[in-house]
Amino acid sequence: MTHEHHPGPRSSRVPRLPRLSRRRLLGTIGAAGAAIGATGGAVGTAVTRDTPVALSTVGSTAVPFHGKHQPGITVAPQACGHLIAFDLAPGADRKAAAALLRRWTGTAERLAAGRTTTDDTGIALDAGPSSLTVTFGFGRTFFDRTGLEKQRPASLDPLPDFSSDALDADRSNGDLWVRIGADDALVAFHALRALQKDAADTARVRWQMNGFNRSSGATAEPMTTRNLMGQVDGTRNPRPEDEDFDERIFVPDGGGAKDPAWMAGGSYAVVRRIRMLLDDWDGLSVGDQEQVIGRRKSDGSPLTGGSETTLPDLEARDADGRPVIAANAHARVAAPETNGGAAMLRRPFSFHDGYDEKGAPDAGLLFICWQADPLRGFVPVQRKLDRGDALSAFIRHEASGLYAVPGGCAPGEYVGQRLLEG
After folding, report:
1. Is the pLDDT of residue 234 over 70?
2. Across the strands, what pairs with 19?
3. Which residues form the domain of 45?
4. Is there a domain that residue 11 lies in?
5. Catalytic residue numbers, as ranges
6. Is the pLDDT of residue 15 over 60?
7. Which residue has the higher pLDDT, 126 or 33?
8. Torsion angle, alpha carbons of 254, 259, 260, 266, to 10
9. Are residues 252 and 361 in the same domain?
10. What is the DSSP string of 53-116?
11. Do 302 and 370 lie in a common domain?
12. Beta carbons of 131 and 75 less than 8 angstroms apart
């Protein structure tokens, strides 16, 4: 509440206050500001400062950059993310690409450890590493532009067309792809800015997308994240403790039958910008939404009962003899059991890029999935979804990319060195 002040002669009914020293005045203002801030008043935020605290576990956590696999693949969902694709500039050759990957590797290594870059902007100067991960991949066209066509993996053959696709070519593919994830927005943007500056005249931004997930600690206990439809998303992800996890997600040592040796320890990333038609979705009752998905919205459990991790009983029937989980329910159509065991590790971000001309939210999922072979992971599942998934009426695939993500590097090496110097 504000009080109107009328200028004019001082009224004799208003008592004169005693003169305050500067120290006493500042102390009084600080106490009053704290009290107002406690009640949610705007004045409190104007006259008080945050109390310094020790670096939290969110900020201090670091993900090792070096290793057999690149970071950012098996890491738990991160609060903030950026995806960015580059095309090599005209005249940039294999040597220039190698120099760029060397610069990028050095920058990513320093930032992942919480250190500053050579030409640091100061954006995240006060923060710790915040679980920052940076992952690099090569698109199909990279090999043509660097004279490395013979080293291009067969798994990078273009994805098939799907009837539900409405792809924007300008926001798809690219010679180089970078995934950035962190548990702090400024740390993630700092990495994005640093890598874009490192590209200099060697590579130009083709497209860039921003995403987010629920922040660590936002729930009473750790749980699977939700997407913008309110659905628990990622329940049946492969887990590192699974006996066949590495076989499904990573290219074997030596490269295997389909992959060149430089891809050992690597993986293939399929990236899809999936617009969610949220106004249409929100118009459904919760019961109808659950029929579309085949799971309870409250906890992600299958409609056939149990908890989130209970396997759906795809044979269960209701009293009228109808499948409890409908024939076109997303959980049934996407289940590994109905796709020859096809599986992929999903690590998406949600996105919201404002509103379209009709006032509908331009929002949805930046879908990222990892697999040793996209023809055995993403492709068969997406073909099945394309033919008869009830969820398809409420989503639209608007951009797509497929990238070969090489294995990790040791200290002193750079990502992709076995390809570029092999």
Report:
1. yes
2. none
3. 21-50
4. no
5. 233
6. no
7. 126
8. -70
9. yes
10. -PPPHHHH----S-SSS-TTSSSPP-SEEEEEEEEEPTT--HHHHHHHHHHHHHHHHHHHTTPP
11. yes
12. yes
